[in-house]
Each structure stands twice: as structure tokens, then as C-alpha cells.
């Protein structure tokens, strides 16, 4: 209320109390709506498994869920938008006593989570197995789609249902929320998730080789490093690890990259030319030469795309990286054997893999 001069008149103590009571009532109503919706979601949800909170995910269609298989009440994998995220009061009440100590950080973490990757207990018997599968699935989705997602929380319950519980929800932080060094508007579709499912076994096979593992981890972490030049160096350490080359690096690496990525002659020529151009940019970036922001961004994003293409080619080619003699024979005209990346057996060592 204001007087004729336009100045706001102070509220009386009774009015101040009524105003505070109305605010508290609205907050209580809002919290109760979250709890009621959490209970409804829990009643409808038949999934039993593990939930990885992910940031940076874009699905083709607002509010859409993608899953494999798509018609199953309990799919093997699914990615679902997070709805009905608990407020800080609901979250604190829901957390286990051990997790309550980190309630503020977990509430902060939740603000970055847009979607959840669900992994059914049918394919992951333990939390460790689920975390290992999640790391592989998220990394493969980045390679397949160029969508720079990252997993930042783990729980055995969706965020949207946590408010229905009391003192029983455990949430484990995985990674600090990190912004990628470049923006990507790529989306993840159901066919991409299915592609990942079919190639997880191949990924486990290849991951047993240190050179592939270095390249794979370089692709996983480089987009989220703080310094672009450091990221370029990390990417190229991954690229070079895929080939056993000790001399004539630019020439031989570019030739091997061409035959690994494609069986088509014209595409091989394009890959070789692009590789040599990027190798020059890489040298300037990692040795501190002056580069404007556009050239540095090109060195970063194009080098990551090259590493991505090489890893996808490795997945298509076989459970072992092509040897130097294999690549030399391909240069002389023999094609590399490609099976599309679908392994002949399912790995039984998911529990033992490094998270």
C-alpha cells in the first residue's frame, strides 16, 4: 500500500505475519505437489535398475523418451527427460543420513541434470557393472551423435520420484558439471541408442587394448578440458596411439587414417588431405604458436571429429586394431575386413572393467 506521495507505507506487524504465512503456505503447497507427483510417477513406473543423471542431452522432440526395446515396460536402456525434480526440502528429507551431509551440493548438481540414462538390472547385476556400462554407453553416444553429454550423478531411483521417499535415497556424484569447449546442437535418437546396444560388446573387446583405450578416453575427456590447447594435445595423443608409427609421422599417419576410415579411394584422399592440414594446426596449437580464436577452434573441433571417425572405424573393423602390416596391405589394394561392429559374443567382464 502507498500514500498520496507514492511512497510505500510500511506493513503493520500483523500484516507482515499474514504475508509471511501466505508465502509459507504457497511453498508448502508447491512441495506437496512435488510429493504427490512423485508418488504418481512411482506407481506408474515398472523399471528396476540404475539411473545416471546426464547433462547436455538433446532429444528429437520436447518431453520425448527414447528406449531400447521401445515397447517394453522395462527397457534395457532408455533416456528420459527429468520431470518433477525435488526441491531442496523434498530432497533433504528423501536422502539417507549419510547423503544429507551433501544435500546442498546434490541440490546444486540436480540443477544441471536434464535427462536420465536408465540401465536395467537385467543387463547390470551390480552398481559397478551399471556404472561401467554407463561410461561406455555415454562415450559411444558422443562418438555416434556428436552430442556432448556427460554423466554427473548415479542413483537407483529417478529424480522425479525421490520426493516420495524419506531417509532412503542415496545419490552418488560422478563428475563435476562441466561445460564443453564447443557447442553442439546434435540430438540423440532411438536408432542411436540401439546402435550403442549392439556395439557395447565390441567396445569391451577393443577396450582391452591399451592403444584403443587411450584413444577412447582421449575422445571422452578432451571436449570438457578447460584449455583448448591442452584438449588438442589430448586428442592427438589419442589419434597417434591408434597407429604404430615412429617416423614420417604426418605422411604415414595420414595414409593409415585414410585406409582405416574408408574403403573409397576419393574419401581416402580427402581424409589424408584433411589429416595433414590438421596435423599442421595441431603442431601450432600444442607448441604455443600464435593462433586466432577461429583457427584454434577449428584445430580443436576438427581434430576431435577426426579422432571420432577413427574410433568409429575401429569399431566397424574388428575386435582388434588393424596392425601395421594390415594397413600396409590396405594401401596396396586389399580392403580391411568390416563387420559393422557387432561382436559375436556378449562380454562377461563388465564388473571388472574400469569405471
Task: Describe the structure using short key phrases.
elongated, 8% strand, 12 helices, 355 residues, alpha+beta, 6 strands, 6-stranded antiparallel beta sheet
Set out the fold topology.
Layout: H1 13-44, E1 49-55, E2 66-68, E3 77-81, H2 88-94, H3 97-100, H4 103-110, E4 115-120, H5 127-145, E5 150-155, E6 171-173, H6 190-207, H7 210-221, H8 228-241, H9 249-261, H10 265-286, H11 293-317, H12 324-331
Antiparallel strand pairs: 1-4, 1-5, 2-3, 3-4, 5-6
Summarize the structure.
With 355 residues, the chain is of the alpha+beta class.
Helix content: 40-55%
Largest sheet composition:
6 strands, antiparallel
- What's the average pLDDT? 90
**Unreliable runs, pLDDT <50, ≥5 residues?**
none
Terminal residue distance = 60 Å
Beta-strand portion reads 5-15%
The total of helices stands at 12
> Overall 3D geometry?
elongated
Helix-strand category: alpha+beta
Rg for CA atoms: 25 Å
Number of strands: 6
Strand neighbour order, sheet with most strands: 2-3-4-1-5-6
